[in-house]
Amino acid sequence: MTKGTVTPAEWKIYHDRITGLPVRQLTDYMAHSHHLYFTENGWYDEWRRLLFVSDRGNSANLFSMDMDNGEITQLTDYKNNDQLEACLHPEGTYAYLRRGEAVISLDLNSLQERLLYECPAGYNIGNLSCTADGLSVLTCIQEDLSGRLDLDLGNGYVGHRELMEAAPSSIILSINLASGQTKEVYPSDCFITHVNASPTRPWLMTFCHEGPWHLVDHRIWGLNLETGKVWRIRERLAPGEKVGHEFFSRMGSGLAIMAFALTALISSEPSITTMLIWRRQSFILIPGTPIQTDYPRQWPTARGT
Q1: What's the half-sphere exposure (Cβ side, CA atoms, 13 Å) at 10?
Q2: Spatial contact of 284 and 257, defined as CB atoms under 8 Å apart
Q3: What's the mean pLDDT when you consider all of the chain?
Q4: How far apart are alpha carbons 275 and 266 in whole angstroms?
Q5: pLDDT value of position 272
Q6: Using 50, 70 and 90 to split pLDDT, how confident is the model at 298?
Q7: Handedness of CA 48, 50, 51, 53 (dihedral sign)
Q8: For residue 202, cis peptide bond before it (omega within 30 degrees of 0)
Q9: Most exposed: 38, 50, 145, 290, by fewest CB within 10 Å?
Q10: pLDDT at residue number 252
Q11: What is the mean pLDDT of residues 16-43?
Q12: Which phi and psi (to 5°) does residue 42 adopt?
């Protein structure tokens, strides 16, 4: 298949076996198909179209689905491409792609592509997120330490802790979409990932210190793109608590997060281990002191060891 190819709808409807509710499956191709990263919106054209990535044809490319009739349009034509990530311009006119170590602008009408940025040698590039005013796309580059560490983060997070402890040089970047000029927003000797722009406030973003959640110094940070000020969001409430899965609300000044802690209680029966999981879902208004509403959950489960 080539760029601009339109294929018929693949969707089908079935009923959930527990609730009986109808479920519409959107793709049915013998390949992986997935939506954009959970912090990124893929809906555009007034909710009539949806972006997704699929490796049909044995190569990862970007596709658009017409939600009126299910037809699928191929938007890129990359060969032998293992991975593709994308974010959407707030007006839904452009998508910004991370392919290898390059950032590419894609016009969603003409399908013309333009190279915006190439990562320097010795660094890897992270995810993309477009600012609310549509003027810049944010990303982060991290020092490539694969030459001295055994890393396979995509398969079981092999080397995750070792990379965190090695403290690779990281830089949050802002790429001007008109000129292509790149601005270093926040450098740090820390493994930084998960760049996330507010959908309504062009100056506001969050990022993460990467590593095992219960070991990292602090997971979620706020950053003012105008002043460069950074601050911690949601301190741990208990030792070893894991905080993450953050995403902005539609109003753009609120952040939903999930925190949980895991404790294993060994019963008198040697074949049974009881796992107690405390989960806390929070909504935090940022910046400033968080106004927080917590919903604690506790689920004891038993399983054989």
Answers
A1: 14
A2: yes
A3: 86
A4: 9
A5: 40
A6: very low
A7: negative
A8: no
A9: 38
A10: 76
A11: 95
A12: -110, 0
